[in-house]
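Minutes, project check-in
Item: structure for the 488-residue chain
Input as provided by the requester:
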Amino acid sequence: MKSTFEKKESAAVFKISLDAAEWENEMTEAYNRTKGRYKVPGFRPGHAPRRFIEMHYGQGVFFDAAIDIAINRAYNKVLAEHPELEIFGQPELSMDKPEDGAALAFSLTATLYPEIKLGAYKGIKLPKIEYNVNDDDVNASINADLKRASRLVKVDRPAALGDVTVIDYVGTVDGVEFEGGKAENHELKLGSGAFIPGFEDGLVGASAGEERDVKVKFPDEYHAENLKGKDAVFHVKVNEVRMEEIPELNDEFVKNRGLYSTVEEYKNAVREGLEKSAAQRMRNERIDAAMKAVTDNAESTELSDKILSAEIDRMYREFEHQMSHYGIKPEDYLKYSNSSVEQYREERKEPAARNIKMRQVMRAIIAAEKLEVTPEEVKNKLRDPMARAEFERDAKSMNGSVEEVAMNDIMTDKFFDLLLESNEFVLDKPAEEEKAEKPAAKKPSAKKSQSDKTEKPADGETAAKKPAAKKPAAKKPAAPKAESKKSE
């Protein structure tokens, strides 16, 4: 086999030719692999000689199988000769005119991931990011717990903001009822903003058994065209007034929750939970900041449109998965948002390109620092039953192995640790950024699925998320078949 290699921007082109003897070997291999498919009178399946099968089915019966075998064998060989190449997907095939006595000639064009030239990734001074938990945070969390444990009790007094009213109502415009303007025993919390402006305020002071006409005006941007900007009257009957009763914080309350014995023990647990969340948030945001800096400092070669399109596809699938939790089709959501699939894809080009560069930078740093994961580390990680269960779910959804997912998790943590230890968070933030900070009590979910670890679908990947569960080093794809394009 003869082959030549040429690198063109974001692609590698391999020109390959086989002489007559090599091509005959591939035809023989094709016969041996596929002869069981053919039935020839006088022979048991799989035992007919090649010449009899060719006589019965035609001289080209093994041609396509031989082509596939030749391409796969040649592609694996040329990839082994060029381990420095990081290939994306399957290459495109074109059949060439044989020259210099060759029996078969073809070209394989493989798409290449962009190459990264690392800039500074150590010793960078970054804005200070830290979150501390104070008594106000603890009290706010406890008050939220108490509110969640509240119950509604029926009261015999006029309704006030914050009360829940149970009402019957009929709405009319110019004295005519309209669709969707009627209900019975509807629970409405006054002040919730669930109804159009003016409706809830119109029930303040109403008592159980009272009937009122509440006059309102539909907003100009209301979703129903026939009601936009219209004056309306709702005839309302108040059936009940209920008040939210918040429990008192005492030992009985915390004991009933089944986790703590005293208020003090409960408060300490709340503080500990908030501190863990604050520490995790600080770590995530520091990783994001450091990853942004090292990505900005790195240089990248041209990004193939093929890779960019695949990344946008991935982001759209993740968006589709998110919408499915709400029973919404992504195209319907986009239409409601005055957007479209085409606009979504166009708007994701920049974050998608950044995602790709970020992952390439991460791989380059891992290679430069020679970070490794040992089999023993993987075994230790998998001894944790909860971690193993999560890795098994991830491996199943990604058609990978549990060990591969665990190795990726360990490698990513090592990389993040390196990033945090090698850079300093010492710079003061501008005043406007300080004002924009959320309180430490506000925290992301501690539980992360593999998709959370992998990407942030809509606006680009944050560095605090795990990369795909593959070894950071480039992995060579299987030989081409599905994407082949033949030409004379």
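Outcome recorded: The chain has 15 helices and 13 strands.
No further action items on this chain.
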